[in-house]
Amino acid sequence: MEKLPKIGLPILILIVLTIVFISKSTVTIGSGEAGVLYKTFGGGVVTDEPPLGEGFHLVLPWDKVIVYEVRQQEVFEKMQVLSSNGLEIKLDASAWFQPQYEKLGLLHQEKGENYVQRILLPTIRSAARSVVGRYTPEQLYSSKRDVIQKEIYEETKKIVGNQYVQLNEVLVRDVTLPPTIKEAIERKLKQEQESLEYEFKLTKAQKEAERQKIDAEGKAVANQILSASLTDKILKEKGIQATLELAKSSNSKVVIVGSGKDGMPLILGNQ
To answer: How far apart are the first and last CA of the chain?
Structure first.
């Protein structure tokens, strides 16, 4: 250091201070992130301006930038809740969420960086307990999975929406019942299915019997009408018409008029 010119030491100090100043005064925001600016001598967290977006930013060295992920995220939660009749149900769910971008400063100021543990997860648990408590285990196991998923989403969104969190979806991934209850429900569902199949076969057989009855009655009525309409004169007339048609045929035959039953022509052919 003694060999450095007298003017060299101040310049070296200035360069070092400049490097430190620049390193403390720049921040780079990554993709899918945003920064909340904290002004040490300017009122703390900036809430009346949009957060710092992606890219390079210059800030005063005594200020800070708190970086948040603002793209959609997913959180998982396993819960034990009670059904309407007091049975314990295990529920696996997940939520898709992201902070409200324009209110990121307020989120940081009022909730902090661990807002998921402070706000989102407790709200999901509370909504799940409230919703599942309205249904029986049988409803949860069979037909109400989509319904409770939608209701948990709506109740959670209504609360966290006022806490600067945007909830996009709640997914109920698994509902686990006590083994004995599950087996009883499965037996009941199987019996109901067998009963429905039996009723279907019985109804089908009844409809087939009715169809055959109607068909037989229709044929009987048709035969009665036909029998009533076939008088002796009509039969003779039909016979004469048939004889005339046969007489026109090129096949060899002998027609003996009046030799048949009831005076009808008798036809003798070569067969």
So the answer is: 143
Q: Domain coordinates of the chain in residue numbers?
A: 8-69, 73-177, 187-229, 232-269
100-138 pLDDT tens trace? 999 999 999 999 999 999 999 999 999 999 999 898 887
Architecture of domain 73-177: 2-Layer Sandwich (3.30)
**What pLDDT, on the 0 to 100 scale, is given for residue 104?**
96
Kindly state the average pLDDT of the residues 52-80: 92
Cα separation, 99 vs 79, in Å, equals: 24
**Tokens 């009749």 belong to residue:** 85
- Per DSSP, helices labelled H in 98-178 are 104-110, 115, 121-132, 137-141, 145-160
Query: What is this structure's pTM?
Result: 0.61
Stated as kind and residue range, the H or E segment containing 175 is: strand 165-176
Listed in sequence order, the residues at least 6 apart from 8 whose beta carbon sits closer than 8 Å to its beta carbon are none
Pair 152, 131: CB distance under 8 Å: yes
Write down the residue that tokens 């083994």 correspond to.
179
